[in-house]
Design brief:
This protein is α/β, with parallel strands linked by helices and 237 residues long. It has ten helices and six strands.
């Protein structure tokens, strides 16, 4: 099933994907009166979601995980591979580690629980459309808890970084500071305060880090660090 709607001139164009029609109706009710956001299509499986993105210009997909024919993880993988300009937010009722990590590995820019407050969902859509990543705080904390045991420990005396840090040789010292802050879950505001610079400056540094490492967003930075065994540099105290 594919249900296209009429688009406005410059809204954030949203695709709703869920095999339960009541969930789609609920999400549509939340979004239909939001300025600058337009639900342009609905789909009831991963297969029809892919068809929708192939046929229509979509900015943000709200993607269910558990669906018939093709689940949301595989649909996300295919959509982000063929339409990198389209961002995916995975929504699920299940606060499970494997779903979150699989979704983010598949290329999702966000992972949220379906019980999220309506205003938070709207904010997440705007944030992802602007090129940022969105993951609920408890998912972020859990990801970091899972990653921490796998990251090599730096020498507490010398502060030496692991050999794998050669992957980061292209970063400046300040960009490496920002990289380290990202992989422990710090927000731009927190990084700016810690480094005593403006948030605008931090956004520039984050952009440089993403560009130099060939990554899409800060969630991919965390995954990159995990997969390559890159721990943050040692800090005093």
């Amino acid at each position: 099933m594919l249900q296209p709607s009429v688009t406005d001139d410059q809204p954030i164009r949203v695709l709703l994907v869920d095999d339960q029609s009541l969930m789609r109706v609920g999400f549509n009710l939340v979004l239909q009166n939001e300025p600058g956001i337009k639900v342009v299509a609905q789909a009831d499986s991963g297969v029809t979601a892919i068809k929708a993105v192939d046929q229509l210009p979509i900015d943000v997909v709200l993607m269910d995980v558990r669906m018939p024919l093709m689940d949301g993880i595989e649909a996300t993988r295919q959509i982000t591979a063929t339409h990198p300009e389209t961002k995916v937010i995975v929504l699920t009722t299940f606060d499970l580690d494997d779903y979150a990590f699989a979704a983010l590995k598949a290329g999702a820019s966000g992972f949220l629980l379906k019980d999220i407050a309506p205003e938070a969902m709207v904010a997440a859509i705007r944030q992802v459309a602007a090129g940022e990543a969105v993951v609920s705080p408890r998912i972020t904390r859990r990801m970091l808890e899972l990653f921490a045991p796998e990251l090599p420990t730096n020498d507490a005396v010398t502060g030496e970084r692991p050999a794998e840090s050669s992957l980061l040789d292209g970063l400046t010292s300040r960009e490496r500071d920002v990289f380290d802050a990202i992989i422990v879950g710090s927000s731009n505001q927190e990084i700016a305060a810690a480094l005593d610079v403006s948030e605008t400056t931090i956004k520039t540094h984050v952009g440089n880090v993403l560009s130099k490492l060939g990554l899409r967003d800060r969630i991919q930075v965390v995954i990159f660090a995990y997969e390559n065994g890159l721990a943050p540099k040692a800090t005093a105290g």
